[in-house]
Amino acid sequence: MTVLNRPMSGKPADPTDTVAVRVVGVQKIFDTKRGRHEALKSIDLEITDGEFLTILGPSGCGKTTLLRILAGFETPTKGDLLLDGKSLTNVPPNKRPMAMVFQSYALFPHMTVAENIAYGLKIAKISKAEIKERTDVVLSIMDLVGLGDRLPTQLSGGQQQRVALARAVVVRPRVLLFDEPLSNLDARLRDQMRSELRRIQRQLGVTSVYVTHDQSEAMAMSDRIVVMSEGHIEQVGTPSEIYRQPTSLFVADFIGKANVLTTSVASQSNGTLTLNILDTQIQLPDPGLSSSEITTVLRPEDVNVSRHPSPNDHVPRNESGILEVAGWLRGVEYLGSSTHLTIELLDGTLLAAVEQHTALRGPQDLPEEGAGVVVSMPIAAFRAVSAEERLLV
Ligand SMILES: Nc1ncnc2c1ncn2[C@@H]1O[C@H](COP(=O)(O)OP(=O)(O)OP(=O)(O)O)[C@@H](O)[C@H]1O
Ligand SMILES: [Mg+2]
Known about the structure:
The chain is of the alpha+beta class. It has eight helices and 22 strands. The site of magnesium ion (MG) has 2 residues, from α1.
């Protein structure tokens, strides 16, 4: 991958910025002994200049394949990639102004930290003086000052990962690509490194594409998240859009915890959906799905639980934008900052709820396991989503 003399800018990502990378109808078919496998099914995606974009999805959904196609290590079966408006189709990986950071670090074991970092610059025939200067700057940004003479084996996992990142950014790539770079680190270090990595990315303002199957990593780090499933994109959005406004059951379920409430459509008109739910009816904005594929989801934090002496006598209510139904508290799991509750409604539906605690409001204020309860759920918190796997053409 080549070295660009592009000045480093501290510009934060801005959604009105221009498109850096455009992925147009990219399909990838692998020919295997057991036949053809379509790893990517016509992907369209725009990556904005300076943004931190995360590709998130379960194992085998095609994340690495998409990243390798961006880097040029794989050729798409169909489709095209444009970088700043120019096609990358005939540009080999070593001529693409991109740098990749791997899970395995891939450091050269016989080279010192400084030599590892300088390697790409040496290949690009940069002068010795400039190599020294740029290596020193990056060592300092990565908090690696004083470690330049060590071999990779003399470093901790977190330090090795910072060297791998230093080696990628020192060439001032137009786009940084990451493939699960933190998954070899223990949980605490991973949390520390993810904020570190985000800080460095912001400081450099470099367009970044980050692959992970860890949803909390994606939520914490990204400007936008691309949720993938089985070779296609399910949804693209900011972390809060993906969490608050999932468009499918797959996304709602993959990001955080979701209660799924079976419903039937009573009517669908003028952008409003009337649903039969828990012996009553609610109205939601119509996401434009066909009635056979609609279900509703509700986050556990939107389920409020209080005691009720005789749930069997309670009549489901939908008043002032709150749906109220009765049930029994079946599970109580105290986790310190919160308690997770499981409620069985009178019709047998199981609901998950979460109660946050403070010094003034603790688990002692909650109903005990087995108690009769009434749950109140704001209608505005319900989302109508697609319950079906998308039909793929
Ligand atoms: N070179 C290859 N030949 C044949 N099939 C491949 C090849 N590379 C990937 N695949 C298949 O393509 C699909 C997508 O693989 P990919 O590595 O992109 O998944 P991933 O989303 O990165 O998964 P993980 O989270 O496990 O890394 C998988 O079913 C995989 O087995
Ligand atoms: Mg992968």
